[in-house]
Amino acid sequence: MNTRLLARRLLRDVRSHGSQFLSVFAMTVLGIAVFGGLDATWRGMQAALDTLDQQGGMPTLWVTTTGSTEGDLDALRAHEGVDDTDRVTSFTMIHPRDGETSGALSATTMSESAVDVPITVDGAPIDQADEGGVWIDVRYAESNGIAVRDLLPVEIGASSAELEVRGLVVLPDGIVYTGPGLASRASDDFGQAVVTLATAQALGIPDLGDQVRVIGDERASDAVDAVFADRVVSARDRDLNVFVAPAFDRVDQLRVLSLMFSALFVLVAVLAMSSSVRRLVELQRSDIAAFRAIGLSTTVVGLYYSAIAAVVVGAGALVGLALAPVLARFVIATQWPEFALVSWDPVFDWTVAAVALGLVVVGVLSAWTASRSTRRLTPAEALQPVLGGPSRLAQALRGPLFSKLGHGSRWTIRDAIGHPGRLAMGIVACAGCMMLLFVGFGMPESLGREIDIAYEDQYRYDTWVVVNPASTPDQLQQLEDAAGPGQWVMQGYGRVGDDDSMDRVLTVLDDGDLFVVRDADGAVIDLADGPAVSGAVSEDRGLARGDETLIIPARGASAAVTVDTITPLSQPQGVFLSRAAWVQTGAPFLPTAYLAERAVTAGDLAGAPAAIGLASHERQESNARNVVESLGGVFTMMKAVAVILAVVALYNLGALSFSERTRDYATLRVLGFRNRELRRLAFLENGITTVLGWGLGIPLGIWFLAQFVSIFGTFRAVYHPYLSPTSFLLISAITVVSALSTTLLLTRRIRRIDMTAALKGVE
Questions:
Q1: How many CA atoms lie within 13 A of 236 on its CB side?
Q2: What does the pLDDT average to over 82-104?
Q3: Which of 5, 314, 343 minimizes the C-alpha distance to 175?
Q4: Under the phi-then-psi rule, with left for phi > 0, alpha for psi from -120 to 50, and beta for the rest, what region is 454?
């Protein structure tokens, strides 16, 4: 038998036994498509961020100061670790729209450096000599119907003007510009703008240079301290800048998601391939005997069955690679509104091809292993009929309870236990379906539940007013008089311990109950008794109640405090102190927000210069839910793929089981069993597999959900896994129905069994 005949036989075997390899093919397609799509998505986002970094000179450190000069920049550049720096002046422009509503544009002046350069996507490029023009954040412009050369009415304090829109831009430090007090982009109301220094001065804006942007390494922070000292209001690197950090977080989230999500498909595909090849080998024992009799070596026979695996898995890998770009485009479309990037296209590299090749190799090895015992038989041994029989474990099933079962039920249970590979594949498929459904349903519920807790219990104010930390006491009093009763809050970043990173949120609360912090038992924590530490910080730093630690705020002196309570609060993650306790450490209380009990409008705060922005409680909540909705497409994909996993894998399992049992079903028919009874026996075994897989899938699903939830945790927020009882029942129903529906389809074959062919022995 030459190579060409073997190849023709191989294709015939794959075609005639196609149902056995269906799940192998489908799992390979899904595994490669999902991994390739998500991998290309995060790589594409990383490439887009690299473009902003290279073309726009994205800063590594953003410093807010009380003022800066060109001399300060020269002194800063002289320090090691500083590659480049610039200074700009920031101010807010109100954009009246329809006489009743207005947008807010966070504007900065331009600099001549290569730091944080806006990238023009439409209109004229940045012109330092321009006067009377403005470059607008492209997302804000699209949301408000603003085009190049439009006249944009703006208000700065009590003055107003009209600026011509020269161009639409993407700003490197505004990838996730959210507006004050918001969690995700709100491009309809908040955006960014850039003007020249001449335009700003014409608008009455003095050249303060309150914003200093730095490109450098970790030593740049020390350089800023040395040059600006007590003029520093805040300093944020890429990990702490809330308008940049979420983009880098999403890259990591999608990367880990692609690995975890695809691993399950690889496992199921390997199990399916091993089981399918083993069954094919058993069906072709006489063919293998003929192969051996005509002189084919065991190696050639092994390569033949390995080639079958290569064809099936290889075809699935090719289809998966073809579908990966489609899936990547789908995921990018769901994420695009959340991030202001110049472009975001899928980027494929050798990793996806390597995974596809690796899956083919694993499939070939599993086929080689599955066929090893049979191809080593002599032709005479291979031609002997395989009588088989239950395993020792199955034979050990005795006892009065087992004896009360019918003959058919006892045979079904023994047969299921006697084929552990087939049983394991079904259990893994059911458990895998449960795991993916836990994530598909549990992720949005976990994130949504934290939002419910935050905005229904933790935050009780009506309006969050953003405060300039450099405000004078008189200005703060003006704000309080204008906004009415409320609570002052100071938030910033710091370290918990001298060896910690500067990414813990320090929240200092004045007297009031508009910002509630609870303990693990749900009781409201009285911060007057001592500071509270969030659960993630407590675990990371090894802190317990009564432990003493150092609180080191950014740009401030350290203070020793004793932990009084551990709070399971989702966000913010850090340390919570009362104003009185904070002042006792010797640190100044510089509010960054005022929580107003009543609804406050921008008009109410027109005479309060300390207020630099505001957001209503309702707007903050709906904005936070946008983050969950933006990931809805990914979660829906998980649900759909989970159902496909269960249906395809279990259908193939049923087809494999049915082909193995054809002789047994025929024997039972001869013994008097009717078709209805045989179908009941088939349902019984499938039910055993489903129940075991369902039971195993519950703890694995909880663990899998916890792992996925942890992926979305950041230094700002930590989420806790949650699945509602309704969703659990729905997940269980989907798994069971998907599993049992395959049996319903397969049991129709029982009445079509050819009794003569099924009971005929080996010739």
A1: 18
A2: 84
A3: 343
A4: alpha
